[in-house]
Amino acid sequence: MTPRNDAVDSVRGFAVLWMTVFHFCFDLNHFGFIHQDFYRAPLWTVQRTCILSLFLLCAGMGQALALHQGQDWSRFWRRWRQVAGCALLVSAGSAWMFPRSWIYFGVLHGMAVMLLICRVTAPWGRGLWLAGALAVGLAQWAPWAHATWGLPSALNDKAWNWLGFIAYKPITEDYVPVLPWLGVMWWGMALGQLALSRGWLQPTARPTPAWRKPLAWMGRCSLSWYMVHQPVLIGLLMLGRQFVSP
């Protein structure tokens, strides 16, 4: 086992905690305990963007650290299979709960694709900053390009909208296409490489400050937490609804 960087784990852990609170509010809304528009209200859409950005920045920095430590492809594929397998479980679970808006390309699906791309583009170095900017910019430009040039409508279908070059967002509970989100992961990898080159970021075995230990632990267990927290929250709310009418 290679040493972990508790600072990156703590930031990821903070994202996990924020995500859990966000999803709890979403579940409260789903079961009618509160009434909020999670799909359009800036209070919720901005939070989602911030949470997802933190996760992808940490994923990019994690790849920079892993390559710096000499992680080989066998270890990469082992973790990648876990992410991809969990993505399939998310699709199956969401299809049962939200049959009309099931998750076919959510955060784990996106990460599975983007981790592969980041791995092979890591040698780009400083070019990752520009590549990230282009990825984000292309996604913002896509609706205009569709309206002006009449691009193929197939880009908006499920078979291709995972690329993110779309005219409108699809109906799904979680949608994390390659564009623009690959740009955020590229920026995370570029930031990690910069921090490593300057000595700001190093794998460390130093004791983690007591106040940060819970966050660092959550960051290390982020995939397991992601897969378990919603079934637990939904189960508790379904139980609670038996005693409290929303």
Structural commentary:
The protein has 246 residues and is an all-alpha fold. Helices cover 67% and strands 0% of the residues. The protein is built from eight helices and no strands. It has helices at 6-30, 42-68, 73-97, 107-121, 127-149, 178-198, 213-220, 222-241.
Per-chain topology:
Elements lengths: L5 H25 L11 H27 L4 H25 L9 H15 L5 H23 L28 H21 L14 H8 L1 H20 L5
Outline of the structure:
By secondary structure, the chain is mainly alpha-helical. Helices cover 67% and strands 0% of the residues.
Features:
about 250 residues; about 65% helix
User: Would you identify the regions where 5 or more consecutive residues have pLDDT less than 50?
Assistant: none
Oligomer: single chain
Can you tell me the overall shape?
A: globular
Q: What is the number of strand segments?
A: 0
Q: Assign the structural class, choosing from mainly alpha, mainly beta, alpha/beta, alpha+beta, or little secondary structure.
A: mainly alpha
What's the Cα radius of gyration? 19 Å
Would you list the SSEs in sequence order as H and E? Answer: HHHHHHHH
Biggest pleated-sheet summary: none
